[in-house]
Design goal:
The chain has helices at about 10-25, 30-45, 50-65, 70-85, 90-100, 105-125, 130-145, 155-165. By secondary structure, it is mostly helical. The termini are far apart. It is elongated, with a radius of gyration of 18 Å. Belongs to the Ycf3 family. Seems to be required for the assembly of the photosystem I complex.
Length: about 170
Amino acid sequence: MPRSQKNDNFIDKTFTVLADILLQILPTTKREREAFTYYRDGMSAQSEGEYAEALRSYYEAMRLEVDSYDRSYILYNIGLTHTSNGKHARALEYYFQAPERNSFLPQAFNNMAVICHHRGEQAINQGNLEISEAWFDQAAEYWKQAIAPSPGNYIEAQNWLKITGRFSSFN
């Protein structure tokens, strides 16, 4: 039985039932249904903190999924999982790939910015102001990309850009 069918949470169960109905109604191939099942299992494992299991499911979903748009969300969730594991460099690899397949994925740019900002703070703590500024500049560029398609989102990032004087170069 797929992991997603084992959920005890009412909302998860409802989502699973609706997703299963949609998969039966919509014209999908067996491969697409399998990819979605692995993706859903990955999300379920991830939400429970079972990151190794989530990654296994996401990698299997990537192997099966051929649609570029759907692959973008799998890549994004792989990035989230690596972020949760503290593997920021690895997470960035997946966050970079997601918008290449789906240009409207501002959350990937936001997460890249958060990691760069974190690295900037680490550089400050290590006394390396020059490196910290480079990381902050990179964070600013990613936040601008996150904000551009959805200006009402990422208000804290917008405030940080204004406070640090990086908003003036916002396109």
